[in-house]
Amino acid sequence: MKYISTRGDRTPRGFSEILLEGLAPDGGLYLPVEYPQVDAATLARWRGLSYAELAFEVLSLYIDDIPAADLRDILQRTYNRTVFGTDAIVPLKPLEPGLCLEALSNGPTLAFKDMAMQLLGNLFEYELARRGEQLNILGATSGDTGSAAEYAMRGKQGVRVFMLSPYGRMSPFQQAQMYSLQDENIHNLAVQGVFDDCQDIVKAVSNDLEFKRRYRIGTVNSINWARLVAQVVYYFAGYFQATKSNDEQVSFAVPSGNFGNICAGHVARMMGLPIRRLVLATNENDVLDEFFRTGVYRVRKSAETHETSSPSMDISKASNFERFVFDLLGRDAARTRQLFAEDVEQRGSFQLQPQEFARVADYGFVSGKSTHADRLATIRDTWERCGTMIDTHTADGLKVARQWLEPGVTTLVLETALPVKFAATIREALGREPERPAALQGIEDLPKRFTVVPPSVQAVKDYIAQNC
Ligand SMILES: *Cc1c(COP(=O)(O)O)cnc(C)c1O
């Protein structure tokens, strides 16, 4: 399988070539030249495979430059009970007839980002060893992504992580999760500032091309194709668990921010998985809900971006969205470039032509929005009626899923985090503490390993130079 850019660069590149990359050189996002098609016979063969075997079947359609035995080994080491605490990896939790959760948060950091990041860690280690290279991953985090990256890369050969976080501003649980890692290749830099300071420093360091090349700086952000394709697997795994035969359809409801998770659902549907609807849920940051209602995509300014109680969905723009628009427009790269490289860059928005927007229905997308009050009500209702405690992001997904339920079609709501990560809102909704997995009892008391640095680009550069 070869990969091309959404903005017109058709230089064919293999999976291993784009694995360590972010954007394509022309500023677009990578997509496969075509989606491999899965027919009824293939679905029948895949039903009943273990998660790791299923992952091998799906991913080997997209990866032909890693020997099959190596890929199989990497997937067995990633998707197993030791890492995810369950043989099913993504078990379903029934709520009521026709509605269940698909649990994507059984990984080490209790959020769905582990599903892809754990694989990325093993793929990076493999590819860097093969090339005899090293990579220094630099990132900024206010919680979720940074800890998923650290738990994926800890102890890996050839990879170091330098993760900036705002000193003293994360919850005690989040601080404990990140700072308790004692691995030598993980560097937590607690910046004396806010999250924006951390992000500005990462941008400034990455814009210094000489420094970037010299210290082999890379990232693991959500536009990485390997992360996206790893997520395609759990749409298949959810489908097989929820259905008895391959002529049934299911719908998925997805708490969305950067459009990475639901874009994997779009890819699964394009491959031929019988998905009826992809129900996109946003919080108060409703850039994507607005698009799916109106055909207008309008990037928000920082002042218009809300800090909500489902913080991992607090986005001003959706960094993977261009992939879907490219497909929606019949893969017209010139039109995609015009919308994203011109209209969005210059005016901060675009509006599709009516005949372009009309095609959205063919792709199964519908959407809705959920607010803080909706989250509280949904968490409370799910606890009282089903005895299931859900986190704030999953609550957004469930709230919107209920607006689109159809008789005879099961809806799977993707559970993207566990409630223990968002204790304050759980207390507000239920007046009690969230449940905590046994392995994480008392992690706040573990010794912490981090370095406090001033909010200065030079201080961060100096630290990286001294620790490479
Ligand atoms: C990242 C994240 C999301 C949003 O996923 P996208 O791929 O950015 O759309 C939702 N919930 C949780 C808990 C997350 O960490």
UniProtKB/TrEMBL annotation:
Q: Does Lyase show up as a keyword for this record? A: yes
Modified residues annotated as N6-(pyridoxal phosphate)lysine in this record: K113
One example of the protein's molecular function in GO is: threonine synthase activity
Q: Which residues form the Tryptophan synthase beta chain-like PALP domain?
A: 99-333
Q: Which GO terms describe its biological process?
A: threonine biosynthetic process
Q: Which UniProt keywords apply?
A: Lyase, Pyridoxal phosphate
The protein's Enzyme Commission number:
4.2.3.1
Please report the stretch or stretches of sequence annotated as the Threonine synthase N-terminal domain: 2-79
Q: Which cofactor does it need?
A: pyridoxal 5'-phosphate
Q: From what superkingdom does this record's organism come?
A: Bacteria
Q: Which Gene3D superfamilies match?
A: 3.40.50.1100, Threonine synthase, N-terminal domain (3.90.1380.10)
Pfam families named among the record's database cross-references: PALP, THR4_C, Thr_synth_N
Question: Which family would the database say this protein is a member of?
Answer: Belongs to the threonine synthase family.
Q: Which NCBIfam families match?
A: thrC
* Record-given protein name: Threonine synthase
UniProt organism field? Caldimonas thermodepolymerans
